[in-house]
Amino acid sequence: MRVQSLQVGMDVGKARANGAVRCRRISILMGLLLTGSTLSPLIFPALVPAASAQIVSAPQSYGKAPQPSPAAPGQAQHPQTGKSPSETHTAPAATPDTPDTTQEDETETDADMAETAKDRCDALASDPLDEDRRRDVDLVEWDDLDADAAIEACSAALAAEPNILRIKYQLARAYEKNEDYQQSVKLYRELADRGYAAGFAGIAYAYDNGEGVEKDEAQAFDWYSKGANRNNAWAMFNLAKFYDDGRQVPEDDRIALQWFERAASLGNARAMTDAGFLLETTTTDLRDVVKAREWYVKGAEAGNDVGMANLAGFLMNGTGGPKDLEGAFKWYKAASDRGNASATNGLGYLYYEGLGVTKDLAEAMRLYQIAADAGIGTAFTNLGYASETGLGAPQDNAKAYEYYLKGAELGDGMAFNNLANFADEGIAMAKDPAKAAEWMEKALRAGATFSRDQMRDNAGEWSVDFRKALQARLKEQKIYTGAIDGDFGATTQDAIDTVFNVPL
User: Partner of 375 at 20 to 30 A CA spacing, among 75, 104, 149, 324?
Assistant: First the structure.
């Protein structure tokens, strides 16, 4: 099972030490998605960056991810069901003895118009993961789909040739993008009745998200299963998510991985990334960071920005293979250029530390701010660290405190850690051991490895009052059974391990 937080799958506790003997506050690399993610994109002692991972937690719709690579050669393909025997149309011949050239010209014009509408429909709405799509046209990602233009072209094409199910599916897709769910669900059902695999995925997604029908996870699971068994990559991906999240079925990483890998084999770039994420973060015997890295490579090369960011983290840390700081910079930048804000934060960290690129604090701060504006908690923590230390920003503990609070509001584990340090030390606030203990517990529950290491290896550098307050909090929750004496022995350590990476 994988516990997910804002920094899903990340070793969030590794941060740059600030140089003080009490190494208790740190600079974060990046907060990874989820996320989705999604997805999902850190904090580092002794300048050792951490492994990062991203996933998107919400179910992914078919056709709504970065463009995948083509299906691998030799993969089983869904039969071309529902297509007319020929999609080429010619005008009927006139009688030999009384040729009617006017009628022939009109008929050819009608056929040409139908062909043009069909071509326009394909050009405007071809789904990258529809196995029955045309292979000779550019694919259209969900974000690039012009719903109004596609509806116009596909409606005209379908009126002329109502038996081309691919066109009907593309029209349904355009209606869905236009949020006309009654029309999209109607068409998806018609497609499913004819055995069109993508139609099953469309109905499933409607039930999964309550679009045009009442939300019903049981129905969604059933329709995803039908679509997956008909070789639709998006149905496979979302079915994997059900097993991964334990929805409608017991959580099962092994079955989830099988469906992720099947979807990936058909070109689903997000499935490639999620297969890697599962292999990186599972607590079962499936865990394999070498294979995870291989899947991140595939996802990144297939155009998935989360895969790019996760691969960058692996390259930066040498996870699953050798370190490659220039490669980390390349992939963080590629993901950032595609709008991945967590990758932008990671790119900022590379500039901040001069890893794989010439050190540039001004550029690092610019990138941190962009990521923070996009709601990345670790970016706020990085800005706070810069303000606290005066490295990259004017030294200002009050400003650092504000940034750490914002990072904490977004769930960043290291923001909680650094706030705990402020409360214990009385930095930018009065000393408050109880508040420090509250924030430290939140850091631990958020999976901040740096905080866990502090409590294990450096607890003596924290005040006795803080240590007693943390013991008291754990005892109130019936997690700790020992004395409230500030001695972080085996019993206290066991209690801390119990709450680590376990959100309330």
Answer: 324
- Report the pLDDT value the prediction gives residue 387, as an integer from 0 to 100: 98
Q: What is the model's pLDDT at position 112?
A: 59
Q: Which carries the bigger pLDDT value, residue 463 or residue 93?
A: 463
pLDDT higher than threshold 80 for residue 166 = yes
Contact 380, 404 (CB under 8 A): yes
Q: What is the torsional sign of CA 284, 290, 296, 299?
A: negative
Residue 342: CB partners within 8 Å, gap ≥ 6?
30, 31, 32, 33, 39, 40, 41, 54, 309, 371, 376, 378
Average pLDDT of the residues in 66-92: 26
Q: Which of 458, 376, 373 is nearest to 420 (CA)?
A: 458
Predicted pLDDT of residue 111: 55
> Would you kindly state where each structural domain of the chain is located, as residue ranges?
79-230
Please tell me the distance from the alpha carbon of residue 488 to that of residue 496, in angstroms, as a whole number.
10
Q: How many C-beta neighbours within 10 Å does residue 49 have?
A: 27
Residues 50, 484: Cα–Cα separation, whole Å: 34
3-state SS, residue 28: strand
**CATH of the domain spanning 79-230:** 1.25.40.10
